[in-house]
């Protein structure tokens, strides 16, 4: 893959199953609603025109719409148990790391 950028994965803490992924890539930014129990996903292209930079949009979604987005990906039972205080703390930490990597243009696989 020639495209690169920050990729943020949202997984269940018990099962480890992935439910959401935000691929904030330079050339083809997109996100996924992943339905792990049904073994399919919905790939959604991102339009920066009306939405602005994808990383900003993705971080806003994580902070403010995680529960709704989990419900769209078959994770309703998880959405009901989201600890909003911990979510806020985690989102702040993810935002700091993602912005730092993005500003440094560090490929995520190198930073891990």
TrEMBL record:
InterPro entries: DUF7700. Residues 2-98 form the DUF7700 domain. Pfam families: DUF7700. This is DUF7700 domain-containing protein. It comes from Parafrankia irregularis.
């Amino acid at each position: 893959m020639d495209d690169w950028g920050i990729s943020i994965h949202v997984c269940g803490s018990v099962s480890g199953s992935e439910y959401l992924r935000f691929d904030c890539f330079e050339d083809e930014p997109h996100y996924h609603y992943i339905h792990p129990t049904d073994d399919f996903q919905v790939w959604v292209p991102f339009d920066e025109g009306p939405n602005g930079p994808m990383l900003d949009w993705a971080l806003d979604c994580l902070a403010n719409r995680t529960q709704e987005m989990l419900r769209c990906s078959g994770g309703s039972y998880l959405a009901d148990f989201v600890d909003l205080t911990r979510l806020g703390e985690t989102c702040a930490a993810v935002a700091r790391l993602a912005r730092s990597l993005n500003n440094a243009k560090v490929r995520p696989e190198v930073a891990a």
